[in-house]
Design a protein that fits this description.
Chain B: InterPro entries: Glutathione-S-Trfase_C-like, Glutathione-S-Trfase_C_sf, Glutathione_S-Trfase, Glutathione_S-Trfase_N, GST_C, GST_C_Tau, Omega/Tau-like, Thioredoxin-like_sf. The complex is a heterodimer. Chain A is α+β, with helices and mostly antiparallel strands. Chain A has helices at residues 16-27, 44-49, 69-79, 92-118, 122-147, 160-166, 169-173, 175-179, 190-200, 203-208, 212-222; strands at 7-11, 33-36, 58-61, 64-67. Chain A has a four-stranded mixed β-sheet with strand order 2-1-3-4, with helices on one face. In chain A, a hairpin with a 2-residue loop joins strand 3 (58-61) and strand 4 (64-67). Chain B has two domains: 7-80, Glutaredoxin (3-Layer(aba) Sandwich), CATH 3.40.30.10; 92-215, Glutathione S-transferase Yfyf (Class Pi), Chain A, domain 2 (Up-down Bundle). Chain B has ten helices and four strands, in the order E-H-E-H-E-E-H-H-H-H-H-H-H-H. Chain B has helices spanning 16-28, 44-49, 69-79, 92-118, 122-147, 160-166, 169-179, 190-200, 203-208, 212-224; strands spanning 7-11, 33-36, 58-61, 64-67. In chain B, helix 1 crosses helix 6 and helix 4 packs antiparallel against helix 5. Classes of the chains: A alpha+beta, B alpha+beta.
């Protein structure tokens, strides 16, 4: 790594979006200073670094802030193109496919999950669960296509889609307790189940993902503010 | 254009997301087959090319489909990097800034604007309008920062953010006509107001933006049929 290269990550320990960035930094072998934020009492640094959204994660590289988890992931991959493995494929078509699935995860998975978790009425909750499971089923198909028999969405090694979904893993593992349903099961999503085992065993995952039990307790008490 | 490059765009003329792709193709000087889809009766090709969302635009390049407007734009920029101007700068930090503002346009302007236009209750519409106007205010600042004295978000030339916002311009004019509100008001957001005038004069804009009059008729007809509408333009 070039001398004088300074990386600072503003985050909160529970945030899956922050976990995504931690995963990417670890996979690339990049050192960084992590600064835990108090979102009830936002720091000046956070407010000046992300004046538009005032949210985490923010990656500050040599004093310059980058915001939004997927923007940060692509930035890390491009700014550190010769450091560690590539997160996105080199082929433009494969990059488009990877971006498609990351966009799908962000557009389609999170909202029904939140509904399933926070819904007051049974009907609304059931609908959230149903939609979430349908999305998970589509992702099973995506994994089959993207991996082509290899361990990850990125093929032999962890890629952009793996990181985007992986960042959410602690929440996904806590889903049964938080939403009342298992997101993955051997009958419907065998590939994803195996992927979860594989992903959680990665060193990067052990460092980047919050403890599931701690997260579940926190989510229950705070009723979800990520 | 490289020999043997077959580009087909599955679209619908009113869609601002399709307009974005047409803008990019025009800016790059790329020829393509323009396939108009009937969104009430989607073609086999569309359903096969975008089985997940079943939506337009889809760009089919030598038989391989690419979906989602901003993904298509980056794809075009990467595959045809040596053809026409680049939509994204070379510097990773500037690329991150551009991507940030593209996401902002989609999440904070376009989404509330659609709620303003198509919301089911007056409350929803009013909230959408409020958020859309707030976003326009923020984008004025973004333009000032990004343009660095040049006329566009991309600086001296058109970039990804310009195309993302430019794609919705005809619809913004239609919304102004329907609501009586000025979205890009020279008094409140002078840089953006000037940017709009500059953008619509581009050859690419003249080629790609749908005619405002025709779009206004379309919008009125759709509002009238709203009760029975299947809302196929909800992409």
């Amino acid at each position: 790594m070039a001398g004088e290269d300074e990386l600072k990550l503003l985050g909160t320990w529970a945030s899956p979006w922050v976990s995504r960035v931690k995963l990417a930094l670890h996979l690339k072998g990049l050192s960084y200073e992590y600064v835990e934020q108090d979102l009830d009492n936002k720091s000046d640094l956070l407010l000046t670094s992300n004046p538009v959204h005032k949210k985490v994660p923010v990656l500050i590289h040599n004093g310059k802030p980058i915001c939004e988890s997927v923007v940060i992931l692509e930035y890390i991959d491009e700014a550190y193109g010769t450091t560690g493995p590539s997160l996105l494929p080199t082929d433009p078509y494969e990059r488009a496919i990877a971006r498609f699935w990351v966009d799908y995860i962000d557009q389609k998975l999170v909202i029904p999950w939140k509904v399933a978790f926070t819904a007051d009425g049974e009907e609304e909750k059931t609908e959230g669960i149903k939609q979430m499971l349908a999305v998970v089923q589509t992702l099973e198909g995506a994994l089959k296509e993207c991996s082509k028999g290899k361990p990850f969405f990125g093929g032999d090694s962890v890629g952009y889609v793996d990181i985007a979904l992986g960042g959410l893993l602690a929440f996904l593992q806590g889903t049964e307790e938080l939403c009342g349903t298992k997101p993955f099961d051997i009958a419907n999503t065998p590939l994803l189940l195996a992927w979860v085992e594989r992903f959680t065993a990665l060193d990067a995952a052990k460092v980047a993902l919050p403890d599931v039990t701690k997260l579940v307790e926190f989510a229950k008490t705070k009723r979800l503010r990520i | 254009m490289a020999g043997g490059d077959d580009l087909k765009l599955l679209g619908a003329w009113p869609s601002p997301f399709v307009t974005r792709v047409k803008l990019a193709l025009a800016l790059k000087g790329l020829s393509y087959e323009d396939v108009e889809e009937d969104l009430y009766k989607k073609s086999e090709l569309l359903l096969k090319s975008n089985p997940v969302h079943k939506k337009i635009p889809v760009l089919i390049h030598n038989g391989a489909p690419v979906c989602e407007s901003m993904i298509i734009l980056q794809y075009i920029d990467e595959v045809f990097a040596s053809t026409g101007p680049s939509l994204l700068p070379a510097d990773p930090y500037e690329r991150a800034i551009a991507r940030f503002w593209v996401a902002y346009v989609d999440d904070k302007l376009v989404a509330p604007w659609r709620q303003w236009l198509r919301g089911k209750t007056e409350e929803e519409k009013s909230e959408g309008k409020k958020q859309a106007f707030a976003a326009v205010g923020v984008l004025e600042g973004a333009l000032r920062e990004c343009s660095k004295g040049g006329g566009f978000f991309g600086g001296d030339g058109v970039g990804l953010v310009d195309v993302a916002l430019g794609g919705v311009l005809s619809w913004m004019k239609v919304t102004e006509a329907l609501s009586g509100d000025k979205i890009f008001d020279a008094a409140k957001t002078p840089l953006l107001a000037a940017w709009v005038e500059r953008f619509i004069e581009l050859d690419a804009a003249k080629a790609a933006l749908p005619d405002v009059g025709r779009l206004l008729e379309f919008a009125k007809a759709r509002e009238a049929a709203a009760a029975a509408s299947k809302d196929e333009f909800n992409d």
